[in-house]
Specification:
Blueprint: E1 17-19, E2 42-43, H1 45-55, H2 59-75, E3 88-98, H3 107-120, E4 139-140, E5 144-155, E6 184-189, E7 196-200, E8 212-215, H4 233-242, E9 304-305, H5 306-313
Parallel strand pairs: 3-5, 3-6, 6-8
Antiparallel strand pairs: 1-2, 1-7, 4-9, 7-8
Length: 327
């Protein structure tokens, strides 16, 4: 297990988008375990980061302040009393942008995603009891709950969406977010360029683009949801980012995800790695490939850790970026 780092420097901030690669893509993990799958998760972190930093010069300092607040809470156990006690209720507005009938997903599919989130974030998913013994002492129920507030639907002529946030703006054919300071906005869209299946905005980003985007065939666990991303875990992963979690490999070879109870990973893992999969990082730890913040298939990710829980709950404390949900 790795130790927490000192305060994250302002320049090292990650805004994420998760994607499946084009067939001709040469982007593969430096190391890590990959099994054959029809689709794989990949990330366009730096492209999104650069665009957001260009459009909002104050973003880095806002996120650095949130990071400082998070570190203060994680490193000082006397401040844990400030964290929510499991009473956080997150209202969700689902914004559906559709060009085809299939993309206009059903109410049942939308509700299935809410149900998945409530199970995954509260240790109620069926796989939670199968967490390997090595990690059983750190597996955690986050204790936040999701409730569907409303569904907004809009027909569109857009064939392909990208990560430029057009789907979040009515002026570009999208849907404006509903009170993003106290409501989680999820945008469900059709085809996305570059094979993207979802992306999130971290706490501290502009309110006009705050929320999570998910492809219609990776949303929920019924209807158009398709394997290997047909169990609703794309939203679980992306909302982890929305609540300030980093990828478990720290977006670098043997990188730091700023959580103390997750093992060092060489890189992202794809598909369904066999257990145990050893890292070649310092100490050759067993990688936590079943963590929601890895890039494994939906069926093979099923836990958060206590450290990740603390990091997420810190966002609901004053100065954490999601304080509006707690008050």
């Amino acid at each position: 297990m790795k130790k927490l780092s000192i305060l994250l420097a302002c320049g090292i901030i990650f805004i994420t988008s998760c994607s499946k690669p084009d067939n001709n893509s040469s982007e593969k993990p430096v190391t890590g375990n990959t099994t054959t799958a029809a689709k794989e998760r990949h990330c366009g972190t730096m492209e999104v980061l650069n665009e957001q930093l260009k459009s909002d010069p104050t973003l880095a300092s806002r996120m650095a302040a949130i990071e400082a607040n998070t570190n203060r809470i994680m490193e000082n156990k006397s401040l844990y009393r400030l964290l929510p006690d499991g009473s956080i209720m997150i209202p969700v507005v689902v914004n559906v942008l559709y060009k085809t009938t299939a993309q206009n997903i059903s109410a049942a599919q939308i509700q299935s995603q809410i149900d998945v989130l409530n199970n995954d974030y509260n240790g109620l998913n069926s796989e939670f009891s199968t967490v390997p013994a090595l990690f059983s002492s750190v597996k955690a129920s986050v204790g936040v709950h999701f409730v569907l507030k409303s569904v907004v639907r809009k027909s569109t002529t857009v064939t392909t969406w990208s990560t430029n946030d057009a789907m979040k703006k009515s002026t570009s054919g999208g849907i404006n977010p509903t009170t993003p300071d106290s409501v989680l906005n999820l945008w469900v869209v059709g085809a996305m360029s570059g094979g993207v299946i979802g992306y999130a905005q971290f706490p501290g980003g502009a309110s006009a683009t705050d929320g999570v985007v998910i492809a219609y065939d990776c949303f929920g666990n019924t209807g158009t949801a398709t394997a290997p991303f047909g169990l609703g875990r794309t939203a679980t992963h992306e909302i982890g980012h929305y609540l300030n979690l980093r990828h478990i490999w720290g977006d670098a070879t043997c990188g730091n995800d700023l959580v103390g109870d997750t093992p060092l990973h060489n890189a992202a893992n794809y598909g369904c790695p066999s257990y145990p999969h050893y890292s070649t990082c310092t100490g050759t730890p067993v990688e936590m490939t079943m963590n929601y913040m890895d890039y494994t298939d939906d069926a093979c990710m099923y836990m958060f850790t206590a450290g990740q829980k603390t990091r997420m709950l810190a966002t609901f404390v004053s100065g954490g970026g999601r304080y509006g949900f707690a008050h």
